[in-house]
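Hi everyone, sorry if this is the wrong subforum. Our group has a chain we'd like a structural model of before ordering constructs, and none of us has done structure prediction before. Sequence below.
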Amino acid sequence: MSKPNVLAIVFGTFLLLATIFESFLWRTLWFLEPVLTMIIGLACFFTWLIGLLNKDWKSVFIITFSSLIAGMILLSRTEILKSEPVLKARLIDDLSSLNLTLREDNTFEFIPVTWMGAFEKFEGKYQLQENKIIFLDEPYGKGFIPDTIDIYKDKIIMNGDLSKPDTSFANYFIIEFNSLNTQ
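Answer:
Right subforum, don't worry. Here is the predicted structure as tokens:
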């Protein structure tokens, strides 16, 4: 096998691995992850360009195929293929926030965001009963968010008592978007 083909296989494989393990690389390398991805992307581009100029169609095919697969993986992580959001809310703390998204297909996402960025995503199913959101899967962490929360005006209250809603700091979500029919 020729050297350009080996480089195409190596760089194409690195591109796929960097795409698949993007969140792991972000958690471990933090700000170096985009630099690493950019270096791999540039190496793939130049390998593809050299293969194109030298009419080495195997290298061109390998890089193109790897790039298409990486693109499909990234596309599957975007909002394009997900169900429409029906509610978006945010709990703000001192140095972090917790974003909640409820979708039409009765799935939810909790995404914690710190000063270092978003690391994890907690997903599952939910049910809606009048103004209550009932999480069928553990919503976030070890009991920080209860399995039932209440929609109260422009807030989501976590204490479960709407007669005395706890709206003290970091105890409620601010609703940013709501298309649910709640009272």
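For your construct planning: The longest strand covers residues 85-92. The two ends are 68 Å apart (CA to CA).
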